[in-house]
């Protein structure tokens, strides 16, 4: 079953699609920093029963880099865990 949800931290929004097979794995993620939609590549993202999201994401392109997006991109480029409870399922 495919579902969409938004994940938010202090700097960016992520729109992710998950395939629900007991544990949810994100297939595609789009970063939204202000008006710029930036593509990214997900290596591993899972959501547990507590609605926490742990993401290891590698950014491969930016249309127009903005400072906030770059801060986020650098953090996840170096494989830091992104964990949030701010998740709303559509």
- Secondary structural class: mainly beta
Biggest beta sheet summary: 8 strands, antiparallel
Instruction: Give the averaged pLDDT, no decimals.
Output: 42
Number of helices: 1
What this model shows, in words?
- The protein is mainly β.
- The chain has one domain.
- Helices cover 12% and strands 56% of the residues.
- The chain has 1 helix and 8 strands.
- Strands 1, 2, 3, 4, 5, 6, 7 and 8 form an 8-stranded antiparallel β-sheet that branches.
- A hairpin with a 2-residue loop joins strand 3 and strand 4.
- The two termini are 13 Å apart.
- The N terminus and C terminus are likely disordered.
Write the layout of secondary structure elements.
Layout: E1 2-8, E2 13-21, E3 23-33, E4 36-39, E5 41-47, E6 53-58, H1 67-77, E7 82-84, E8 87-89
Antiparallel strand pairs: 1-2, 1-8, 2-3, 3-4, 3-5, 5-6, 6-7
Keywords:
eight-stranded antiparallel beta sheet, disordered N terminus, 1 helix, mainly beta, 90 residues
Q: How would you briefly describe this protein structure?
A:
This protein has 90 residues and is mainly beta.
């Amino acid at each position: 079953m495919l579902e969409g949800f938004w994940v938010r931290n202090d700097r960016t929004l992520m729109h992710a699609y998950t395939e629900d097979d007991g544990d949810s794995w994100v297939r595609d993620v789009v970063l939204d920093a202000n008006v710029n939609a930036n593509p990214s590549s997900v290596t591993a993202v899972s959501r547990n029963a507590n609605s926490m999201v742990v993401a290891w994401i590698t950014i491969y392109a930016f249309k127009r880099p903005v400072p906030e997006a770059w801060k986020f991109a650098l953090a996840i480029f170096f494989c830091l865990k992104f964990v949030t409870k701010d998740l709303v399922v559509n």
